[in-house]
Amino acid sequence: VTRLVGVIESSESSADLLGPTPDVRYVFVNPDTSPPAEIFDVEAIFIWNVRSGFLREHWARFERLRWVHIASDGAERVLTPEVAASDVVLTNSRHVFDQSLAEYALGLMLSLAKGFSITFAHQTEHRWVPRDGETLSGKLLVMVGVGPIARRIAQFAKALGMVVRGVGRSPRAGDPDFGDITDATQLNELFAVADYVVMVLPSAPGTEGLVGSEAIAALRPAARLVNVGRAVTLDQEALCAALREGRIAGAALDVVSPEPLPADSPLWNIPNLIISPHMSGDHTESLQEIAALFQQNLARWQQGEPLLNVVDKRLGYVPSERP
Amino acid sequence: VTRLVGVIESSESSADLLGPTPDVRYVFVNPDTSPPAEIFDVEAIFIWNVRSGFLREHWARFERLRWVHIASDGAERVLTPEVAASDVVLTNSRHVFDQSLAEYALGLMLSLAKGFSITFAHQTEHRWVPRDGETLSGKLLVMVGVGPIARRIAQFAKALGMVVRGVGRSPRAGDPDFGDITDATQLNELFAVADYVVMVLPSAPGTEGLVGSEAIAALRPAARLVNVGRAVTLDQEALCAALREGRIAGAALDVVSPEPLPADSPLWNIPNLIISPHMSGDHTESLQEIAALFQQNLARWQQGEPLLNVVDKRLGYVPSERP
Which candidate in B276, B278, B280, B289 is best for mutational testing of the A interface (most A CBs within 10 A)? Predict the structure, then answer.
């Protein structure tokens, strides 16, 4: 039996990436043209462009929809109250971005420790200005978020000789990568001793503003903060004030509010702040890996097997199994 | 018995760092003032500033000199033919820079893979331009040089999922970090398959121009090269030509010729080339660690024990013990 599967395209067509699939007819929705009528007959939707409002806008018209797969890790843009309340299954592209994101976060930490943004600016000015860098080795890294991306960052950090602690939903001791995991009630205490903080939180119930002004005020003057999760989880204004007033040593944000950051935003010029355009997870093989993961899930769906990466719609993300 | 030990200062006095040492009287030579006469009576010299020509200039006047310790890893500026031919023992500050240099080299690889210099330039222009990064995971890293710094870089690279090969003086199989180590006769062959090349060679007999135009011509268009060793070991002109002509994807040089690089050098503007001002090894604790290492060696010297980090004056560096 042939089943109809909708594909909400991003700017480019994904037909080549998906190729023909046995017993599936794809209905492509191009963001720039009006959708074909049969899109509302699909049983499953694969959303390349999670920023598209198509599903949200037309939600009530999808009477046969059973499953939505998204090409991202973060589900917040698709997980509307209507989607959450429905029995439509939502799956994400968990793990596709883990390695790229973890490498990127490590690169941002090293950039801050070694002052790369200063060195690269000196290069454009043709100035030779040797300085002392810092080593990451021996420094305390507090990971806010203990999912698979955070875990990989912790593994890299430990390989470099950092000491790692984790802040997660449920406190527990003896994690192989994070050591002791505490919950958010211990945030200020941990921030007061952290050399580096790396945030990898989803936008989900309970994470908004989780790193707030009090936690930022607890950081030491030598501390540096990196956010590769979601902007909404951090009090951006409090961070910027701390940077402006020299109360912390530096920060790097791959996620900011709003995105894209307008050219006239004061954020671009905050001292000791690296702004990166929400690209930490995107890598040259992302699209292929996303397509392969979706088709793996599609085969499971066709055969009635359990799907991979099912989002807990109450939590807002795929809960981790403990290692 | 009190022994005279000369200290060739850098721009700042190191008296506080060294402090009083039992049975030692330090004779400090300040680069900006004329030296005290008793400097030529010393039995040992500690050279903070290896760029100073003091030892070379006055070599013939040191009649009692038995031992020279240098505050750097590279010995080439101190190891003149006269020093090499003498029976004065030369020791270096091996290992002080290993961690900092290895982190820096990893940071440069990540900068190249993720395009940080482009991102930071976009920030100064207030431009939000997401792009795909590359992952280091799965890529082939060829280490040119297999000393302790290279070994640590290899360990970090493997922790990130890179595949590592080494090029060293003597070929051997089954090294725990480099796998198979080949000698320089295999350089072109390895360069033809490398994704990343990291050079950590000393300036020593046999290393000048070791990575020459043929090796650079063998690199693939996607390849990137990092040099944190010595500029003289690389054909800089050939590398720049390859970058200008887009024959390789990028490079990062922490060591260049000449140093400091003059403001009017064309090197500053080569596309996809990061210039860093010979600072990869310098870190906030370097001076303390160098002073501690020197004083450890000084205690050994006073007690007639074997010194640490004795430079093989024929090789030009401290040969590694195999792990």
Answer: B276
